[in-house]
Amino acid sequence: MFDRIAAALERLAPPPPPSADPLAHPAYLWRDHVLTAARAFTPLPLDMLRGVDSQKQALVDNLDRLARGVAAQDALLWGARGTGKSALVKSAVGALQADDAPLALIEAGTALDSLPELFAEIAPVNRAFAIFIDDLGFDGVSEARTLRSLLEGGAEARPANARLIVTANRRHLVPRDIAEQDSAINPRDSIDDQLALADRFGLSLGFHAIDQDGYLAIVEGYAAAHGLPFDPAEAVNWATRRGSRSGRVAWQYIVDLAGRAGKAL
Is 90 helix (H, G, I), strand (E, B) or coil? Predict the structure, then answer.
């Protein structure tokens, strides 16, 4: 009878699937305490990312050091939306993998409290891992302090073969109003909380809004890669209607252009 009850309970709440082999895939997802292989990892070629040459070189150099097992930094990529932060992280990892670097990407979401489990799982693996936390923001200072502990000085800091690569829309990850709520007695503490977290990242790369020439250069690069002729005036009008010039808007224009031409991307 107990066996039947146990079987029924298992059907209602099946055990989690086993984690994927951490040596077998170029990219993974960390979800619900399980490491799973990403279904498709097809980052853009690095040379298609325009206007971020210095950021590109800095991140690639840092990830190359991580892959070679020498000292490397945790990295914060911050700045305007749509300027290529997330695309650069994936492209940098992909470029190094193309050169046979022993490096994988793990997209970890924002469940910071489960990261120590991930660290324990990958620490003994003979491979380097870029732990990718995309579009990070906080609802409270306690979450920021959790990340700060993981970055440096905590009992469960990340292992030597892993570094955190974080993207955010602002350099100070804790909004001033939230920090001030938590530090009402001493406002200076709110500033310290903001700076203490940002300063834990040894590599901080800023991404800024681009001008019209930069936007058209990105459109031109995408269009050339996909064999699409384009009208610069139309491309500018596309961005104007959206109120933004960015790599993301440039790609959206290319998708529209390809669709009108009856081409797949």
Answer: helix
